[in-house]
Design goal:
Rossmann fold, 12 helices, globular
Length: about 450
């Protein structure tokens, strides 16, 4: 379970910003909102099931997803994929001389196996500068290890982190110690790697749909996940009654005619020789409006972009709910009707469907989600609404609506946001010089 994420000197984040899933000490007029959207980890800690992040275009919403994605991928892969001569693909904040020669900062705090862990590192393009791991119980916080390359210091807790002993020399300057220890079957390290692996970062813009399609097809090998996904798609009123997936042999004939023959030949040579055909079933009616059978449609050719996105994401969403994952989705609402976006968020806020307290963090422009009059009640608490905004120097600030003390429960959040009360909106020019002939 994600508690907190911090990042600094990375992409548009100059100073360290903090994103938190900790529930604030607030009470909503709608008590069901507090009961459904918040869950207790223990007596001291309550976390949020969902959070929405709003902001103008290019304000840093996507960069927050990229920051967590970088940390996740570097933790998982730095030991097994990094060669000693490889550069680390991290990009510092480029709009200030203050940050040019400083490392980027990443830290995640999360709840795992009934303990709270705080893990982080500072990294430049050529080396891991610092790295640390702490855990805390109800009484105090313990340091498991601390690594500082500049001071040539490496402290390992011999009692609580024995798995890290004698592995210092096996850690490359451009690899993370936590990843190295996990490679040598360290129990704590392996569990932390698994936590990051189970925290998914997804782009809803469509640029990675082919990858999500492959993931969904793989997950569909489980009859349970396939059944759940089809039921979700049916419940979202897409008129689809079933989905059939078949393996077909790749040939020149079933490649698009727009592709040149030479390119088709190259594709055939480089592929496995098979592709998956995805067909949706729709009810077919006679002149009396009676169902007489089903008509099959090719998903890629005949269905809408929104329907395809829901298919690609359905198994990922349900997998997160079933296995208590953290899901970060950039542009969740892209290509989706507001009611469908609303229902997906409701699933994660639900006690019935989210019994294991999976967490959904999503970046969005859909202000309808802030309007209770459209859906009959509020969807999100104030601490579930976050904003990104750039200052005059191009650096992103990150803040929560819960930080505003003067907001009443019945304030029109959608209208106030659009009017600029909370910031995080674009400042539009007057188009004075647009289409000028001078």
């Amino acid at each position: 379970m994600l508690i907190e994420f911090q990042v600094g000197n990375f992409l548009s984040f100059k100073d360290i910003v903090t994103f938190s899933m900790v529930a604030s000490d607030i009470n909503s007029q709608d008590t069901e909102l507090d009961e459904n959207n918040v869950f207790s980890v223990n007596q001291e800690l309550k976390l949020l099931k969902t959070t929405a992040i709003y902001g103008a275009n290019a304000s840093g919403k996507t960069n927050l997803a990229k920051a967590f994605s970088f940390m996740r991928n570097f933790v998982i892969n730095s030991s097994k994929e990094m060669q000693i001569t490889d550069f680390i693909t991290v990009e510092h904040f480029r709009l200030s001389t203050e940050t040019e020669n400083k490392p980027s900062f990443f830290q995640a705090t999360f709840y795992l196996n009934k303990k709270t862990y705080k893990y982080g590192f500072k990294v430049s393009q050529d080396k891991v500068v610092e790295e640390w791991l702490f855990f805390q119980n109800k009484i105090k916080e313990y340091q498991l290890f601390q690594r500082n390359v500049n001071n040539n210091k490496f402290k390992i807790n011999r009692k609580s982190f024995q798995e890290g002993l004698d592995l210092k020399e096996k850690t490359k300057h451009n690899s993370l110690f936590i990843s190295v220890v996990a490679q040598f079957n360290g129990k704590i390290s392996a569990e932390i790697i698994k936590w990051f692996a189970n925290s998914q970062v997804i782009s809803g813009s469509g640029t990675q749909d082919d990858f999500y399609k492959k993931v969904t097809l793989k997950l569909f090998e489980s009859p349970l996940i396939k059944k759940d996904s089809i039921n979700l798609i049916k419940d979202l009123d897409l008129s689809i009654q079933d989905i059939d997936i078949t393996k077909e042999k790749l040939s020149l004939e079933n490649l698009p005619s727009s592709i040149p023959d030479e390119l088709k030949t190259m594709i055939l040579r480089s592929s496995s020789g098979e592709f998956s055909s995805i067909q949706t079933s729709h009810e077919k009616y006679n002149e009396n409006g009676e169902i007489i059978g089903f008509e099959k449609f090719d998903l890629e050719k005949n269905e809408s972009e929104g329907t395809k996105k829901l298919f690609y994401f359905s198994a990922l969403l349900l997998n997160a709910l079933r296995y208590n994952q953290v899901l970060i989705i950039d542009e969740l609402d892209a290509r989706l009707h507001p009611i469908i976006t609303h229902k997906i968020i409701e699933l994660f806020n639900s006690k019935k469907y989210n019994q294991k307290s999976a967490q959904l963090v999503f970046m969005t422009h859909d202000t309808n989600l802030l309007n209770p009059n459209l859906f009959g009640s509020r969807l999100l608490r104030r601490d579930q609404i976050w904003f990104t905004e750039k200052n005059q120097q191009g650096a992103t600030d990150l803040y929560s609506l819960a930080e505003y003390d003067d907001i009443a429960e019945d304030d029109p959040l959608e209208a106030d946001y659009i009017r600029g009360r909370y910031g995080a909106i674009p400042f539009i020019g007057n188009f004075k010089n647009l289409l000028s002939n001078e």
